[in-house]
Structure prediction request, 170 residues.
Amino acid sequence: MKQNGKNQFSFYQQINYQAPGSASIARDLHQIADSLRQSGSYAGALDLNYRDFSRQYEYMNQLIIRSNCRCYLVMVTMETAADTLPHIEEIEQALSQMEQSIRQTIRRVDVCTRYSAMQYLIILFEPIETQIPNIMDRIFIQYYKHSKNHSFQPGYEYLTMTEMKENDDK
Prediction:
């Protein structure tokens, strides 16, 4: 049996090749970009579950390496006053109010997640380091405005993600 070259198959002849940059490809790309932009709309910080947060963290680490940008990892901890034993409902309400305060106060380029029963993690993307206390004060002021129960005292610690990378390399 005589074999024909690949150009002899009918499915190769049916493909209509278009030059890259053609109007239909550009139209498709704009349509996809518009769809992605609309599907990802949210207010305030991006609030993710921990698994997605860790993926974003890894992405930000790569961005730091490639672009020399500065990002900070902030841990917010809610502590109870020494003489109180709040009910679980009060704890959940306080944590929900803190989450809303974080999401509404920090920028859309920043990312947050609930890390543990009483902690949140935030990635701040390229803030001025001297402004981090002001950022956290705005979050805490927002929290206290909406909190009905002042039995919880928020606090925070932060590290530059480049410092964490340097420590990992040692």
About this structure: The mean pLDDT is 79.
